[in-house]
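Still learning folds. Look over my entry:

…
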Amino acid sequence: MRLWSIHPKYLDAKGLVALWRETLLAKYVLEGKTKGYKNHPQLNRFKKSKKPLDSINHYLAVIHQEALSRKYNFDRQKVNWNFRPTSLPVTTGQIQYETIHLLSKIKRRDPKKYEELKTLLTFDPHPLFNVIDGDIEEWEIIASRN
């Protein structure tokens, strides 16, 4: 499961569809509708929110908006549109890490999209996130940390 901190506008088609599905799974976990993935590190930051369901629905709404802009047909009814906009912190180090991580994925999956993005130094955050100074988030799983 990867719940990107960066804006979904940078994702290729495969990445956007995967993000939609994974975020729906995260929403089901937060609603208590599934037993799996309950302690996934990337989900924990939503759990720590004062309003986890508002946060995840806000996150989903932006993904849905991006899908609409691309003329994709994501099911609007999967989002509870009565959410109150929220904000979660994310570090500059995490945004930079995700920028590099996504570029390496896109380079293999979608060379045309890679050419479009490769000159950007860093990607904008998903609107849910408020960027603060700091290193890569502690919850991020990086092989070199193990």
User: Anything to note?
Assistant: DSSP finds five helices and two strands in the chain. The CA atoms of residues 9 and 66 lie 6 Å apart. The mean pLDDT is 93. The chain has one domain: 8-138.
